[in-house]
Design goal:
Elements: E1 7-19, E2 26-37, E3 40-51, H1 54-64, E4 69-80, E5 86-99
Parallel strand pairs: 3-5
Antiparallel strand pairs: 1-2, 1-4, 2-3, 4-5
């Protein structure tokens, strides 16, 4: 069964990133997405994470350019913590495009 409803393609700039403290094969980052329409501007932040081997590729991208602009394919993963707060992260399945500042 496909998880069509959970699939996302998202574009934005990396704000920060780092490997998990407990697992060196998981890389977490925050993606900033800006949208503009007429006189209005919205800024959204999305938590993303990648598992090996994409975690290594994502970390290399962030090391090369800490504010890299990327497009990723991923899956929404929603979890609940002990306080019953919901949070959503995007598991990176594919890095589609990386735009360097030099391009």
């Amino acid at each position: 069964m496909d998880k069509v409803i959970n699939k996302v393609t998202i574009e934005g700039n990396i704000v920060n990133g780092g490997f998990s403290k407990t697992n060196k094969y998981v890389y977490f980052a925050k993606l900033k997405q800006e949208r503009k329409m007429i006189n209005y501007k919205w800024v959204d932040y999305f938590s993303i994470y990648a598992l090996s081997p994409l975690s290594k590729k994502l970390s290399e991208i962030v090391e090369k350019d800490p504010n890299a602009h990327l497009i990723i394919d991923g899956e929404l993963h929603t979890k609940i913590n002990k306080n019953k707060d919901l949070y959503t992260r995007i598991l990176v399945n594919k890095i589609i495009n990386v735009n360097d500042k030099n391009e």
